[in-house]
Write a structure and sequence with these properties.
The complex is a heterodimer of chains A (186) and B (326). Chain A is built from one helix and 16 strands. Chain A is mainly β and 186 residues long. Chain A folds into three domains: 62 residues, Roll (SH3 type barrels); 59 residues, Nucleic acid-binding proteins (OB fold (Dihydrolipoamide Acetyltransferase, E2P)), CATH 2.40.50.140; 56 residues, Nucleic acid-binding proteins (OB fold (Dihydrolipoamide Acetyltransferase, E2P)), CATH 2.40.50.140. Chain B has a domain of 205 residues: Bira Bifunctional Protein, Domain 2 (BirA Bifunctional Protein, domain 2, 2-Layer Sandwich). In chain B, α1 crosses α3 and α1 crosses α10. Chain B is α+β, with helices and mostly antiparallel strands and 326 residues long. Chain B is built from ten helices and 13 strands. Chain B starts with a strand and ends with a strand.
């Protein structure tokens, strides 16, 4: 479907200069002379690179029907992450270098969404939050009662995050995988 | 749109009030007269890129169209002709078809001021003094120093950040060719639009990010608006300034050649008609006033909320307000 760039909104998928991109940010901007602009940050789903681009607000942009398909994360090797569509048993893989840091928080067997366009898998849709068990943490030092004090903890996928000093090994915590921040105790 | 009230932003709102107070103080100290303007006007200056809000005054069968003022320029320039001297307005302005975003609302606050006897580059010194004064009064931002400008001419900035040479920038044919090579859509478009696109995409984000506000000056004459042209025949005496990649304000030596101004009004008015924009009454009195002659002066406009965003160190306008319409 073709729409005016002025109607672009966050999360839309567009064809931008031949690449499939997701709109991460779109803000209307009037330069004071000439047409108004739509300043957008676009993330290319294949290369994971962000680009900034100012569209004329009346410029036509092709939006794409990208769908999210439920898949299971099965394993990774040195280079790739492997997922399986549980209905068809088809496997797909994505380079770790493209998926990025979020993959440090993926647990084998977990369900995740994969973006598909024209039946072709593009990339994974990072979950908003993951729940992982703590496998390694130092005990809080006695007397360290400063509010907001943090310590590094290791979770079951092997990743390390900063968490409040009161959490212990064996507890489950929630993490925002995109920022790597501790968000709460579960 | 709906009304949202919050007192969560109280600290930021107090910074807003401090900056407002500092502006009034600076203006008073430097002999600018504060001008109060009507919000509703029966006529406006034709501007092809501004959509306006229209309303109607009713009294029995008497009706008259009124418009929310998109800028105080129309009133301040009439007063300048009448001999008011240095003056300023700090208050609301209204622009339609410009949706809410992090850095703009259709109802926004504008600081506009005019100084007699100075050109755009002399005004740059006044503006940096104003920024210094506000920052000192509010003690807010220590990530940006306001003791000098980082300066680029438009040609320098396009060369440095977009790889467009001076020759390409000032030659429309070469400029379109270069833009096309860069992947911009150059069909059915104008020099002004491509210029704005490249500026917004490749240049602006690099401005005002090294710890000083950036002054961008000498715009191509196609972007002159109501500013005087330079003797080089290619550029206009217009500046904009940026902090953290965001345009905060601009100023220009005001065009005071009445005939040239009338020509630009007619062309702007025709553009409004062909774009099916609201056909508002044109303020003929304004044109008459200009016939008497606008004194030699420079006018500056600053997006007041954007300036406060910098001082309060927030990234969107709604964080400055207790009441948001969005």
């Amino acid at each position: 479907m073709r729409i005016s760039a002025g109607n672009l909104k966050k999360s839309d998928f567009v064809n931008f200069q031949g690449g499939i991109c997701q709109v991460m940010k779109a803000d209307f901007y009037s330069p004071g002379k000439g047409s108004a602009l739509m300043k957008a940050r676009l993330k290319n789903l294949i290369t994971a690179k962000n680009v900034e681009y100012a569209f004329k607000s009346n410029e036509q942009v092709e939006t794409l029907d990208v769908v999210s398909v439920d898949m299971q994360y099965i394993y990774k090797d040195q280079e790739n992450l492997y997922f399986m569509d549980e209905r068809t048993f088809n496997q797909v893989s994505f380079p770790i270098s493209v998926v990025g840091e979020v993959s440090r928080f993926f647990k084998e067997g977990e369900k995740m969404f994969v973006y598909m366009f024209d039946d072709k898998p593009l990339t994974i849709r990072p979950p908003m939050s993951v729940r992982l068990k703590i496998t390694g943490a130092d005990d809080a030092a006695k007397g360290d009662t400063v509010s907001g004090a943090k310590k590094p903890v290791t979770v079951e996928t092997g990743a390390t995050v900063m968490a409040p000093i009161f959490v212990k090994v064996g507890e489950t915590i929630s993490i925002n995988p995109e920022t790597g921040e501790y968000t709460g105790r579960v | 749109m709906k009304i949202q009230t919050t007192i969560k932003n109280l600290n930021n709102y107090k910074i807003y009030l401090q900056v407002e107070k500092a502006v009034h103080e600076f203006m008073e100290k430097n002999n600018y007269l504060k001008i109060d303007i009507p919000v509703l006007s029966p006529a406006l200056i034709p501007e092809s890129y501004l959509d306006i809000f229209e309303t109607e005054f009713n009294y029995f069968d008497k009706k008259q169209k009124l418009y929310l003022t998109p800028s105080p320029e129309i009133f301040l320039k009439r007063l300048l002709v009448a001999g008011i001297g240095n003056c300023y307005y700090l208050g609301r302005a209204y622009r339609n078809s410009e949706p809410n975003s992090d850095w703009h609302n259709p109802e926004f606050t504008m600081l506009e001021f005019y100084k007699l006897g100075v050109n755009y580059l002399e005004m740059a010194e006044e503006v940096i003094k104003l920024l210094q004064f506000i920052n000192k009064k509010c003690h807010r931002n220590d990530t940006i120093l306001f003791d000098r400008w980082e300066e680029y001419s438009v040609a320098e900035a396009f060369e440095k950040f977009a790889g467009i040479t001076e020759e390409e920038l000032f030659n429309e044919k070469l400029f379109f060719k270069k833009a096309k090579e860069k992947g911009y859509n150059v069909n059915k478009t104008t020099y002004e639009d491509i210029f704005s696109q490249i500026l917004a995409t490749e240049v602006e984000l690099k401005l005002g990010v090294i710890g000083y506000p950036t002054l961008l000056y000498d715009y191509p004459k196609q972007m002159a608006s109501l500013s005087k042209l330079n003797n080089d025949g290619k550029t206009a005496q217009r500046c904009e300034f940026y902090i953290n990649g965001l345009e905060i304000g601009g100023f220009c030596t005001e065009l005071n050649d009445y005939k040239e101004q009338e020509k630009r009004f007619i062309s702007e008015s025709n553009k409004r008609k062909s774009n099916n924009m609201i056909n508002h009454t044109i303020d003929k009195g304004f044109i008459e006033a200009l016939k008497y002659g606008l004194p030699f002066c420079t006018g500056a406009g600053i997006g007041f909320e954007r300036l406060v965003m910098i001082m309060a160190n927030v990234t969107s306008i709604d964080k400055l307000k207790l009441i948001n319409i969005s």
